[in-house]
Amino acid sequence: MRAFWASLDRRWRRSGVGMPPLRWQACLFITLNAVILSMMLFDAPVGASEAPAPVKHLGEMLTGFGDSAWLIYTSILLFFQGRAGYKLLKTARSRAQALYVSWIGAYLFTTIVLSGLLANLLKRAIGRARPEHFHDYGIFSFTPFSGHAAFESFPSGHSTTVGAFFAAFALLFPRYRVAFIICAIWLAMTRVMVGAHYPSDVMAGLALGAWFSLLTAIVFARCGLLFKLAPDGWPISKQLFPDMKKPGAL
User: Fold this and answer.
1) Is 4 a domain residue?
2) Is 47 within the bounds of a domain?
3) Record's superkingdom (predicted)?
């Protein structure tokens, strides 16, 4: 294990590209205003009413995707299967593919687990009442560290997981990023459909998960894993076998 961390440290030090100019102040300003406007304009109507039965049923069918448990187990499986393949396979190409899969598992595990822990800490510290208690407390009721799930609405943990997962795949496979963004929005909004969260909870969760995936990708890129840093410092997914796109390549 000590050798593993030493290897990562050497990889980090070899990277000569600085941190990217993410303009995080502007992004944070936009996100905060979007969340506040959503809270003021949309949360009260959602809390005062219930979604139509077909919409609620659709939400109940899809909302389980945001449960982090199965995504964590899948990422662990990817990591260990990739490591096993790296040890057992014979050809250099297949070993490289197995190693690539193992690092995808490590990346997904890191971003989903850590973003989920952060979301859970924030929701307990903020203590916002869930929509089911709208008529008793309204949309601006906060009871920090109450220890009760009814006061853990902001941000949405499911939406954080969804945002982290699909942002990770949008970074790994940018060609399909529009489809990933659409899936993330739909799956995150199922928390509103089932009455578990307000729209502002979902928006904050999506932003939190997405930003965590981006920052984790930058760390991986600095270590030379899965991503490389563009001249401006932005993480770009590595091509496993870039030579395959050259004319005449078999």
Assistant:
1) no
2) no
3) Bacteria
